[in-house]
């Protein structure tokens, strides 16, 4: 914990990964552990962890990087927070993100622009950019992020760390500020696959506070790290090495696939024909759900309240002043897509496309164990490069979003550098197939 704060005070002025530090409480928790010892089954005892600022933390400000929640001081802990506390991990602070997790660069944060530790001119990715940057910069060993449409995997790829988006339902969403409830899932960001396995084991499991959390036993994931992937059936979708993907990224991925083959994996080319419709379908579904979820921020129950005596005026002003441009864009898109005249043309159609995307994956998983490809079409882009061009920004999520729509797990892990910047290798698994992903990722990492 000492080392974490020393490092943070040294580098976070430049990196700007943290929004809030929990220094006093963290130090006294660490001291108590030193004095009282720890039980053998507390697997994260004393480990410094950073939490994305959309996870509610009792008595520790939770802003979602939004002006509207600038002073929100939650009364309870998210289930994932309770679970890391129960293992005696020590919360170092809250990490920057895109406002309400909407974005792919952490530039939509109201408070700060987090920098990529590999090149301070570049974005760390998003929306869990603070989480990935803090791990990459050596500020914390463990971080939690959330992934609605790539937000754990894309920043992990850009920052050269390991990020897992678990199966929908694997981890409780209780106490995560909801963005798109049918897609949101929390997961671990770490330096190594082994650390990642331990952190997922800590946070996973059924929770009576979240009716979508799954009643499926949580494996001891670290036991899957045998190094043996002989006979593993690996599918490479041709769309994932096709148009729109940088040549330098493709070269690293091809080399990684060769390495998996040399470890005994059997590699096949396959097709995910509907993946090209994933980005448009996602932005309709995610925005629709967001427009409903964000209705609660009205200046009454939470957050910033505009000064006026008229009720309707107060709602309007609080929301106009409290939300940033990207959040407003999503609310308007979502409200439009759900409106009675357009519902069938947009929302319903997007849900149908979602089913087709899910079926594409089911077909491939009939005779393959994992799917492999890049996490992102490019390496980290420059700060400011895409922020005024939402469509280019959205297109960045091309390879991550199909996984969220299908509800399946995927991990991103470092796969060398291209022009001095990290490339992310993505491995996609069957529902609740996180063990296989960890086994394959660990074998590759060795
Ligand atoms: N880029 C995606 C979006 O802006 C990322 C969302 C996420 O996973 N939180 O919607």
Secondary structure elements and their pairing?
Layout: H1 2-15, E1 18-21, H2 23-36, E2 48-52, H3 79-86, E3 90-95, H4 129-136, E4 142-146, H5 153-159, E5 162-165, E6 186-190, H6 193-203, E7 233-237, H7 247-262, E8 266-270, H8 278-293, H9 311-322, H10 325-338, H11 344-366, E9 370-374, H12 390-395, H13 401-406, E10 410-418, E11 421-429, H14 434-445
Parallel strand pairs: 2-3, 2-4, 7-8, 7-9
Antiparallel strand pairs: 1-3, 4-6, 5-6, 5-10, 9-11, 10-11
Helix pairs in contact: 4-5, 8-10, 8-11
Bound molecules: glutamine.
Glutamine is lined by residues 101-104, 127, 146-151, 179, 286, 397.
Subunit structure: Heterotrimer of A, B and C subunits.
InterPro entries: Amidase, Amidase_CS, Amidase_dom, AS_sf, GatA
Active site: 52, 127, 151
Describe the structure.
One of its GO terms (molecular function) is ATP binding. It comes from Sporolactobacillus nakayamae. InterPro entries: Amidase (IPR000120), Amidase_CS (IPR020556), Amidase_dom (IPR023631), AS_sf (IPR036928), GatA (IPR004412). This is Glutamyl-tRNA(Gln) amidotransferase subunit A. This protein is 37% helix and 14% strand. With 446 residues, the chain is of the alpha/beta class. It has an 11-stranded mixed sheet, sandwiched between helices. Strand 2 (48-52), helix 3 and strand 3 (90-95) form a beta-alpha-beta unit. Helix 4 (129-136) packs parallel to helix 5 and helix 8 crosses helix 10. It is globular. The mean pLDDT is 97. It binds glutamine (GLN). The site of glutamine has 14 residues, from loops.
